[in-house]
Every structure is written in C-alpha cells, then in structure tokens.
Please model this.
Amino acid sequence: MTASPTPTRLPVAVIGLGPMGQAMVRALLRSDHPVAVWNRTESRAADVVAAGASLAATPDDALRSADVVVLSLTRYGAMYDILGDHTAALAGTTIVNLSSDTPDESRRAAEWAESHGATLLTGGVMVPPPMIGTDDAYLYVSGPREAFDRFSSMLSVIGATRYVGADPGLAQLLYQAHLDVFLTTLSSLLHATALVTSAGMSAADFVPEVLPTLTSTAEMIGGGEALAHSLDTGDHPGDLSTVLMMGATADHIVATSEALGVDSGLPRAVKSHYDRAIAAGYGSANWTSLYEVVKAS
Model:
C-alpha cells in the first residue's frame, strides 16, 4: 500500500453522481477540497451542492474549474459520451476514471486521453459507497507514476491508495478480480437460499445458518499463504480432499437443483471445472488443481 501525504486542497471536479460519486464528493468536501460537480441528471447534484459543492453548468465548465477530474460512471463509454464534445478543455488535464470496465478498455481510454493532451489514471474503488472515506476504504490505481504522485493525497481522501503500476489496465484487472469473487459469492448465496426455501424453510431461518460458511472459508482453505503457494508452485497434494470427492458433491448440487426446479447454471459452471480437472488427470489432487484448467494457457 502506498502511503499518502496529508491531502492538499486541490480543486477537484467530480462527474457522475450516483451513490459512489456522491460519497466521494462528500469525502472530498470534508477534507476541504473545493469540488465542482456535473451530472446528466442535474437533480442528483442537489444534496452535494447543499453540502458545499459547486454545480458546473457543463462538462466543459467542470473540466476548466479543477486541477483534476474524477469520473464515477457506469462504464468507460460514458466518458466519451460526456467529454467527447469538450476535448478542447482536456489539454493539460488529469482524469481519474474510477468507473468499471475491462482492462483493455482502460488502455484504450488512456490512449484517447493522451490524444487530447490529457493524462489518465485508472482506478477501482474496493468498498461500497457508505465506506468511502473510512479507514477500511482503499482503491487500486494505475497509470503514469508522476500523475499518481501528484494526486495521491487527494485520492487518499476517498480511500488508501494502492498504486499497481504504469499499465492503465492493471487497476481495472485487480478490481474485476475482486468482483469476480464477490459477485460469484453473492450468486451462490442466493442459489443456496433458493434450494432451501424450495423445501419450505424461510430465508430468515437459513441465511444465519449459511453466513458462517462465508466467514470461515479462509480458515477452511488453510489461509491465503497456503493457497497462494499451491497456485504459484503447482503443488496440489490431495491429502485432505480430492477433485474426485469434491466433484461428486458438485454433481449432487446440480442434480438437487434440477430436481427442485432451481436454476442450475451456476452449479453447472462449477461442475464443469471439476469435470475438466478430472479429464486432465487431477482426480486424486486437491481442489486447488482446478486452477490448472481455468488459468490462461
């Protein structure tokens, strides 16, 4: 994690005022940054303007009002939609795009910004809006080191900064990797609840029963260090569990889902990993050997 100096009071523009954008504006205002805001739906700016932000009439005005522009949008394409008609104001500007998209799209966006004389930092905010500005908040940032060093103190108001390198796609890759775990976990939680409620148990009864499975998973898999060792070295001893054993359970979850009329897409995807690992000769190895069939060849 990169330690950040005490934030200086840089003028900041924030474009995009969904829950995340509004939370970032409030954090910046609490640290006495002058903040200009713009949003396509102007009414969304009312609360943060009441809290002390200034409302820019146009994206061009927002760009010209600040030393750095923070984007909080649903996708990178929205950046072109909003700023594409205001490229004359981009020269000399640093844009920090904290929107979600693919690593390749982040790289294309950096080229687009550079073609208009701007510098792009890309980032992924790793907490939900209510946690912005708290001690638990952090964000990955990638792009030119000089730009990061200049604006890291401002970004540290949003969350602790973790600079991951000059490649503008790296922060987005790490963001997507975290969300891969998170979204799959959420879907599995809903799927498991659907299995149980099909038999008449309420979600209120089941959810407290299953949540400890989430919180104890790190301990059950031996901790991050042991898992990382297996994945880095390709050492997958099957002394505690095997792909054949856990693959049988994956089969049973698919069969149970289908028998109960619960969507089987997620468990079938999991089962496919075990099927491919068994076909590749990892049947007697640990479940970590699934990595060998899902990683890039």
User: Anything to note?
Assistant: The beta strands are 12-15, 35-38, 54-55, 68-71, 94-97, 119-125, 138-142, 160-163. Confidence is low (pLDDT under 50) at residues 1-6. The chain has two domains: 12-173, 216-294.
